[in-house]
Amino acid sequence: MTQGRTDRSGSGTNLDPWYHHYAARAAGLSASEVRALFAVASRPEVVSLAGGMPFVSALPTELIRSSFDRVMTDSGAQALQYGSGQGTPALREQILEVMALEGIHGSVDDVVITTGSQQGLDLVTKLFVNPGDVVLAEAPSYVGAIGVFRSYQAEISHVPLDAHGLVPEALRERIDELRGAGKTIKLLYTIPNFHNPAGVTLSWDRRLEILEICRENEILVLEDNPYGLLYFDAPPPQAMRSVEEEGVIYLGSFSKTLAPGFRIGWALAPHAIREKLILANESAVLSPSSFNQFVVSEYLRTADWKAQIEIFRGVYRERRDAMLAGLHEHLPELTWTVPTGGFYVWLTLPPQLDSKAMLPRAVKELVAYTPGTAFFAHGEGRRFMRLSFCYPTPETIRLGIRRLATVIDGELDLLDTFAPTGQLDSVSLSERSTAPPPNMN
Ligand SMILES: Cc1ncc(COP(=O)(O)O)c(C=O)c1O
């Protein structure tokens, strides 16, 4: 074992003697330089508007405990055993019921249970993306998806979104540009509902137009929808998968509507793709956790899960309202998106500010957020930040926004003082990576 700790060829680094042995794809797995800062930000005195952690304390713990107990009593031997690579038939049936709420009518044969939808992202990318292939994604996009695409050496090409989601005209133009440059486009990755991080929802007309564009161009749509049932007023438009079976792989998850600790998500794939997806799942994990599938299935069978989702909606609606009220009160000169569901607000800063450079000062003032740069593949996004309202209480959110306003005002004052040079030392923080620190999802 000591061998591994020495620099075997003289070409490794002091910290990692195997540095030059990694596969090329491992280069995509780089830690973010804000990771250390987030360790500080998790101290209790810091108001964190950074993480995307669901408020699991709103769950009926007794009901979940009794689901555990019943699984052990009635089906312990099966639940503790390896299972099928596709997932248990009972849970797959129940998932059809969940998806029907968003207009999807699929076959139980085409549902594949995954270890969170994060693993669904990984499996689909593994199956379709060769190094250098293009994955289209909204600008900004989910940090965890960017990490997966990078790790398979995809070329990530961002397409702008606005208050109504991904802009179809921009998508058409980007596809033409990329095709003109001889690129192979494999996937369009989209989060149509209550986007992470932008908070916006794709309109119905745009859903249809985007599906049409992808059909014409033979681009597979990867529809990632963990937040769709967490709407605050009216449900969002129906899923893209509800109108297009062959060209869409749909990803769902129990992480936000139940609990992320179960790590149970699913993919609904076109029939022809499903078999490969199961094989990829088996190759990655043999079978998704039998025990957790049994417990989730028992919970869905015995609890009023729709009423529980309604409770979550109320909790998150109140927190969204607290955040918007705080922004109106303390930062009225800025602009932000107004989410009608989900967890996130996307804030635009004055052009002279840099959210990444400002983060250490914010943490010093006991408030944390996620800098916009985390959500772009190529270091853009300094003018933006993601504010999460899912976890802190409304009161804490208001306090956090007050502190954030102090930080932003302080930065603007400093820049005024140092104008016209205006260059603050922290602005030169390097931009090595945008990979997610823990809890930034
Ligand atoms: C858009 C999006 N996709 C996928 C995931 C991964 O979720 P999980 O693997 O917990 O299902 C997240 C988590 O925050 C997310 O926001």
Annotation field: number of helices = 13
Strand tally, please?
14
* Small-molecule components bound: pyridoxal-5'-phosphate
- CATH class group of the largest domain: Alpha Beta
Unreliable segments (pLDDT under 50, ≥5 consecutive)?
1-6, 422-441
CATH architecture of the largest domain: 3-Layer(aba) Sandwich
**Shape, per Cα inertia axes:** globular
Structural class call reads: alpha/beta
Main sheet: strands, sense, barrel: 8 strands, mixed
Query: What count of structural domains?
Result: 2
Structural overview:
- The structure is a single chain.
- It is globular, with a radius of gyration of 22 Å.
- The chain starts with a helix and ends in a 23-residue tail after the last helix.
- The strands form 3 sheets. The protein has an 8-stranded mixed β-sheet with strand order 2-9-8-7-6-3-4-5, sandwiched between helices. The chain has a 4-stranded antiparallel β-sheet with strand order 10-11-14-13. A two-stranded parallel ribbon has the order 1-12.
- It is α/β, with parallel strands linked by helices and about 450 residues long.
- It folds into 2 domains: about 160 residues, Alpha-Beta Complex (Aspartate Aminotransferase, domain 1); about 220 residues, Type I PLP-dependent aspartate aminotransferase-like (Major domain) (Aspartate Aminotransferase, domain 2).
